[in-house]
Structures are given as C-alpha cells and as structure tokens.
Amino acid sequence: MAIHFENIKQFIGSRVSWDDRADVFTPDAADAIRQKVEERTVLVFPQIDLTDEEQLKITDLMGGKVRLTGRFNKQDNDEDVYQVTLDEKINPQPEYVLGTFFWHMDGITVDMPPPFATLLSCRIAPDKGGETEFASTYAAYEGLPDEEKDALEGLKAVHSVRASLSPIADAIPEKHREKVLGIGLIKEHPVIWTHASGRKSMVIGTTADHIVGMDIPAGRALLIRLQEWAAQPAFSLRHKWTKGDFVIWDNTGAMHRAIPYDKSTGRMMHRTSIAGTEAVAA
Predict the structure, then answer these.
(1) How distant, in Å, are the alpha carbons of 60, 116, 239, 250 from that of 277?
(2) Dihedral (C-alpha) 83, 24, 254, 130: value to the nearest 10 degrees?
(3) Going by C-beta distance under 8 Å and a sequence separation of 6 or more, which residues neighbour residue 145?
(4) Is 74's pLDDT higher than 90?
(5) Backbone angles phi, psi at 95, to 5 degrees
(6) How far apart, in whole angstroms, are the C-alpha atoms of residue 91 and residue 99?
(7) What is the three-state SS of 246-281?
(8) For the ranges 44-53, 67-76, 117-126, 192-201, which has the lowest average pLDDT?
(9) Is the CATH code 3.50.50.60 the one for domain 3-274?
(10) 143, 122, 142: which is closest to 132 by C-alpha?
(11) What is the rounded distance in angstroms from the CA atom of residue 3 to the CA atom of residue 207?
C-alpha cells in the first residue's frame, strides 16, 4: 500500500496522495483511510476522478453502504449513489438540497444509527460558489472550557427536518410545504455524544431545534453559540471543488454545509454513505 496523508490544518483535514491509483482500492488502504477519517475528520482526494463503481467499492471496503437517497430524485445512475443537484430534471423538489446551505449532520432524524461517514465526489464544479465547509464537533468539544463541558453534559436537543428547513420554509411552494417539512422523525439526542471509543463530539446543526427542559429562546441561543464555536477557523475548513475531487468526512463528528450556488451552474455531486454502528446515546 502506498497512500500518503498530509495534514491541511492543525485540528481538521488531511490531503491524500498515492503512488499508484490502484492502491486506493485495497482493503489495507480502506482500513488506513477509515482510521485517518476518525483521526482527522475530513480527507480530501484531489482529482482522483472516481467512477460510481469505484466510489461504491471504497464505501463497501470501509464498512458497508447505507442508502440515504432523495425519494423524489429521478436517478439516472446506481440507486446507491445519490446525485446532489439542483437540476430540476433530476431533482424536481430541491428543498432538501437547498437545506444543505446551512450547518447540519446527515441522518440525525432517521430511525437508525447516523451514517459513520459521507463520501462525496465532484462531477460538475461551479465557477462561483458551491464550496463545502466542514466543522469538527470533536475538536470543538475538546476546545471548550471545562466548565462549559460540564454544563453541557446531560443536555438533550430535539431534532427535526422541520427545524433544519426552517430557514428556507418560506421558499417552499405552499402546496407541498407541510409534506416537505413533516418528513422524518422527531428525535431527542444528547448534545454531547460519548462514543464507544470514549471520545466525545457534539450533535448540533440546523436539525437541532431546542433543548429539552430549557426555555426555547435560551436553548436555541445555546445551540447557535455551539454552532458558531464549532465553525470558527481553528476547527473548520472550506473545500473549493475541482472536477474529480473526492472527499470523505466523519459524519458522527462533523457538521457540513454547501456555500450557496445558482442552479444554472449545473453543480453535480455523487454521494454515498457508510453505515453507522453507534446510535447517539446519552
């Protein structure tokens, strides 16, 4: 195996290189990549130009895929690869993609463990906008003062798709607004996720609506402060996409969001997800 990792920032991100492209698709490489994802949160493979079959192979080698596809998408490829696009010919209801303009974690409102990792490859890169930002909620938690860590222990937040889409609710056509906002489950999750490894991350983002047992204004203000803390430059990075780039991130310890872009740019990403093995447990 001849793959190499170079840190991008102190607390988040590594860039991956390889001596032979075939080295990326071996079981040994998959183990090394998974370990590095857990350590560095975000891995960037510049211009590796994966096919769907190659992306699915990496996904399977790293732990097995889970399907998180859009129910309204008119896919023209493998159903296990979700096409992230505002192209109305493929995605006639773009609200869920528009919702990704705001900090979130994938799979927080579904009735299964959240995906361990999300894998995204760039097929069409826009000239303007469309970058993806990542924020490590592992590093953000570890950077909190001890008294704030203590104050957060035991708190639970209520998560919903309605909350995550509230910033764009007025832009959803009224004829199907309630149907869109009502998808998914309403879930309670601890704000601090203690993983089986003993490491701790925060479960935050726009799905988090309020804090259980706390006045709504105070709870929402706390959740926004935690988002802002996690998104500070020390704990976050922005990736400017080039066609062929491939990025993997630890969905259990990172928020992400897309920088807004116009649908006319044709931005197209292909997404797969690695099945999670841990429920978010207090």
Answers:
(1) 14, 7, 27, 13
(2) -40
(3) none
(4) no
(5) -60, -40
(6) 14
(7) EEEEECCCEEEEECCCCHHHCCEEEEEEECCCCCCC
(8) 67-76
(9) no
(10) 122
(11) 36
